[in-house]
Amino acid sequence: MFPEKGSEEEEVLTELEERTREDLTFDSGKILGSMCTYPHPLAVKVVTKYIDRNLGDPGLHVGSQRVEIEAVDMLANLLGLARGYGHIVSGGTEANILAVRAFRNLSDAEKPELILPESAHFSFLKASEMLGVRLVWAELNDDYTVNVKDVESKITENTIGIVGIAGTTGLGVVDDIPALSDLALDYGLPLHVDAAFGGFVIPFAKALGYDIPDFDFRLKGVKSITIDPHKMGMVPIPAGGIIFRERRYLESISVLAPYLAGGKIWQATITGTRPGANALAVWAMIKHLGFEGYREIVRKAMKLSRWFAAELKKIPGVYLIREPVLNIVSFGTKNLEKAEEELKKRGWGISAHRGYIRIVMMPHVKREHLEEFLKDLREIVAGITP
Ligand code: 0PR
């Protein structure tokens, strides 16, 4: 009910504290299955300080707009381009929708179709429904990468583009983007890479010597990339990223907003009013951590994931779905549903709804949390009869 009278600030805060008591928090170390984390303190400071900035009316906040453009350029730079065209958006969902929208708008296909791996994130279902683009699913190989031959066999005159994934939601697998890029170039189609998760991992993991396929704009067929600062970038939600190789993609999805207080603009994002603070936080985090800072975060996460995968293998009745590629480890157990239920009862923030349990080594996940988890898992699996 909408209260007639207001309450004291203290009272409101106390009630919220009570009401959110049952939330799991990242600092508890119990959230192992999320791609979010506790944001970096600097990013929190920046968001608080610039909370009123609205990039939906950039003419009012010209400085913030310039910072957003620079943040996009720095992301483009990380991904192998000197200059990129895009935005800091609400998340990977919006970024993927914008890419599909651009591909559709630039195509003259009568019944637009998008070819994407069976491992693609559900955000493409939303894009499909909203944009009237039919999804054509490509099969996966035994290692859960997309089968490039199957992708090729599904290209028709209605194909508007191809999607590859650099860090799948379930397993953190990186598709053979170089092969997809070649295919896209051969057929004159744009390739979108969903690196919502992997974008802030792969460049650093590669620098650390991990053997991961190329996935970014260095491959000429790649025309757009989703890269989310609110995942491994340590920026508060909402902060997604969409980067296009060329300006025309962004132009193809821009609509005119002629009357804004700050003046007329062309707007490409789905959201109108949107947080400038988070875009500033993306910029601030990149400036603050630099390549080296992110590389160290990724070093720890990758090392932890390899250790964790090795520990899992020692548990009878537990098996890896595949060797980890990034800092995601997914495993199955005998009687998985029961194991999930028991783990949840012990307070663990995990899900087994895909037929396995996914553990994401986000920066808040420490070895001691995983040791606790392994202890519980061992007990639970030992107690479950097949
Ligand atoms: N693309 C990929 C490859 C993703 O993994 C995700 C999100 C998206 C796009 C969409 O990003 P947004 O959620 O930012 O729109 N993947 C996570 C997942 O489905 C999202 C998530 C994050 C879910 C934290 C739960 C959670 O606690 O697992």
What's the helix and strand layout?
Elements: H1 9-19, H2 41-49, H3 62-78, E1 85-89, H4 92-106, E2 113-117, H5 123-131, E3 134-138, H6 148-153, E4 159-165, H7 177-187, E5 191-194, H8 202-207, E6 222-226, E7 240-244, H9 247-252, E8 255-257, E9 265-267, H10 276-313, E10 318-320, E11 328-333, H11 336-345, E12 357-360, H12 367-383
Parallel strand pairs: 2-3, 2-4, 4-5, 5-6
Antiparallel strand pairs: 1-7, 6-7, 8-9, 10-11, 11-12
Helix pairs in contact: 2-10, 3-10, 4-5
The site of ligand 0PR has 16 residues, from helix 4.
Brief summary of the model shown:
Helix content is 40%, strand content 14%. The chain has 386 residues and is α/β, with parallel strands linked by helices.
**CATH arch. level architecture of the largest domain:** 3-Layer(aba) Sandwich
- Mean pLDDT, to the nearest integer, reads 97
CATH superfamily of the largest domain: Type I PLP-dependent aspartate aminotransferase-like (Major domain)
Number of domains: 2
Total helices: the number is 12
Strand residue percentage: 5-15%
Q: What is the strand arrangement across the widest sheet?
A: 1-7-6-5-4-2-3
Distance between the termini: 49 Å
Instruction: Please report the total strand number as a whole number.
Output: 12
Task: Summarize the biggest pleated sheet.
Answer: 7 strands, mixed
**What structural class should be given to the helix and strand makeup?**
alpha/beta
Helix content: 40-55%
Query: Based on CA inertia axes, which overall geometry fits?
Result: globular
Alpha carbon gyration radius? 22 Å
What's the helix-strand series? HHHEHEHEHEHEHEEHEEHEEHEH
**Ligand roster:** ligand 0PR
